[in-house]
Design a protein that fits this description.
Helix content is 34%, strand content 19%. It is built from eight helices and ten strands. It has helices at 50-68, 78-81, 86-89, 94-108, 132-149, 174-186, 219-233, 239-243, and strands spanning 2-5, 8-11, 17-26, 37-46, 114-122, 164-169, 189-191, 198-200, 211-212, 270-271.
């Protein structure tokens, strides 16, 4: 509903929306050199909480600068920071970086009005013709749509009233994702939860094509990068993570994990 206050246009609650920022971990290949897992992690923020969330992230970055000497203007990119490039590490040891990223996750867990949606695709149980990209993104987008529909995201006023959703994603296959969302709006066939068979449930809440944004310029996407990295570590930990006993850091996010996304998993992670 649109109203007017002192001659100015004001939006009603039903005109508002949720932003879902998304990043990936792993690759979508199916060959012998491809990663076994492809993961997506989304951070959902209501537009009414967007400004305070960005301010909180800026404060967190200043704290990292004080605690670890990590430049507040530098990108938080987990795989780069824990990779071989000494330039990316900014003089920090891998152990210091792991602890710093742990603190980032713990910070996120304190968000009052944000939720995290997560998908893991295990390519080991897929045939060569399956597409991990489509499987993962269809799953994440459908969970985003469903969670809005069922009023399971928190809002400042406690209940939703017709909100929409908008997707902001780090660099990925832009054309493929755009076509996928457009197809889901007009021909979205999903399996029935009541037994064999399918039915059509087209997207109605997700507006516009996904917006692609370089994570260098997006603090929320950088948080998604950290989340996606440690989500993948829960199923496929690397040497650095094992050595620093960081395999389960992802679960620090439990207070903001959208458990309604998957009733069969206590953390709401959707495994495909």
């Amino acid at each position: 509903m649109v109203g007017f206050v002192n001659g100015e246009k004001r939006l009603g609650k039903e005109d508002l929306m949720f932003f879902m920022y998304v990043d990936e971990s792993g690759d979508v290949g199916m060959g012998p050199k491809a990663s076994r897992y492809f993961c997506l992690s989304g951070l959902v923020i209501h537009e009414c909480n967007w400004t305070e969330t960005l301010q909180a992230i800026s404060g967190m970055r200043r704290n990292l600068a004080k605690e670890y000497g990590f430049d507040a203007r530098k990108e938080l990119h987990a795989s780069n920071l824990l990779g071989r490039s000494s330039k990316a590490k900014c003089g920090l040891t891998r152990t210091q970086i792991v602890l710093m990223l742990r603190d980032v996750i713990r910070f996120e867990a304190g968000f009052k009005f944000a939720r995290s949606l997560n998908v893991v695709v295990d390519k080991k149980n897929k045939s060569f013709g399956d597409d991990p990209f489509t499987i993962a993104w269809e799953t994440l987008i459908q969970r985003f749509e469903n969670t809005i529909n069922y009023n399971n995201f928190p809002t400042p006023w406690g209940s939703m009233n017709g909100e929409k959703g908008f997707i902001i994603v780090d660099k990925t296959d832009e054309d493929k994702l755009r076509k996928l969302v457009r197809r889901m709006r007009c021909n979205n066939i999903i399996p029935s939860i009541y037994g064999p068979g399918t039915y059509q449930l087209n997207l109605a809440r997700i507006v516009e094509d996904p917006m692609h944004k370089d994570s260098v310029y997006s603090s929320p996407i950088q948080l998604c990068d950290v989340n996606a990295y440690f989500l993948k570590q829960t199923v496929d930990p690397n040497t650095t993570v094992i050595k620093n006993k960081a395999r389960n850091y992802f679960y620090y996010l439990k207070p903001i994990l959208c458990t309604q996304a998957c009733s069969s998993n206590m953390y709401g992670i959707v495994y495909r």
